Amino acid sequence: MKNSRPYVSVKKDNNLEELINALDKNMDKIKAFDQIAGIMLDGGMSRGYADYLSEIDVVIFLHKDAYENYNLKKTPIALGITMLDGYLYDVKTVNYEEELKRDYDSTTLWDLSYAKIIYDNNGELKSLFEMKLKKESEVSQAERLMFDVWWNYRLAGDIWIHREDILQGHYCFNNAVKPLISSLFIANKEYIPHDKWLIHMSRTLEWKPLNYDRLLKDIFSTGDMSLESLYKRQESIESLWNSIDIQLCRMIDFNNGLKLMHRGAYQILKRAVDKGIFTIEEWNKFSSIANLNFEPLFSISEIKDGKVILNKDKMNALGENDMYFWFLDIVKAIRQGDLINNKD
Hints:
Layout: H1 16-25, H2 27-30, E1 36-42, E2 56-62, H3 64-69, E3 80-84, E4 87-95, H4 96-101, H5 106-114, E5 116-119, H6 124-132, H7 141-162, H8 166-187, H9 195-202, H10 212-220, H11 227-251, H12 263-275, E6 277-279, H13 280-286, E7 301-304, E8 307-310, H14 312-317, H15 325-343
Helix pairs in contact: 7-8, 7-11, 8-9, 8-11, 10-11, 12-15
């Protein structure tokens, strides 16, 4: 992971040392489980902050037999939310062997990337950390997220602005915020945090769009709950969305005038049109016949004599009355690319 990472910037008193001391005093009780592979501290304390509302989050990795045996007998200490010597804990046990096999999502990796190993007698937990954290955050993860932002702030947003339902409009804008800020983490090659930390930790990311702090406030502002408040909020979300999109596209050299949300559909259509003719077998390896029933493939393809044929002439003739603009933008980008290549 990078040296410069998002951090907790809470200005209140930090009680971390007190809770760490409490944890140290209870380690013998926590280590009383059978066949421990390792123990880690996660949650807010692992990110360097604790206050009177914090619990001490402990995850105990047990080998398979011991983990299963504890379904048939009592554990040395209570699991879940429990009190130990006056301090609140959240204790969790997991099957070490199953964790090795489990595919961690971005949020689980974010948690793991801050977690602290507090017991690891044979280095087994260190090995798990190293294996899991080899999986890096990838720009492709943001394609769907950035589409979800657009769908909520622009497509649904325009609908409810036109219909003048202020509450429904702001609700749609609310739904745009999580995928938008999640995409900002990906633009920093970071894993995506838990919802609980998403906004707070975003303020200390290494790269942020210009005027991020102001825009962050603006994308949450419902103003006076007027129609004008919807327009202002939509404009702020779009400004942030565009800035993040430019950064993400730059990271993967996707520079054909499209947005990142178009990338998957663009790649499929470009490869299909470039090849032109597929046998049915070839097409099913590349995509599926069912996908020919959806735009933009539907309008430019046919099945004839056991072959899937992509018709460039049909593609070049498509206009605004023939295809939804979202798909037509992809078609136009491919046509423009062909023109440039032909000139070269």
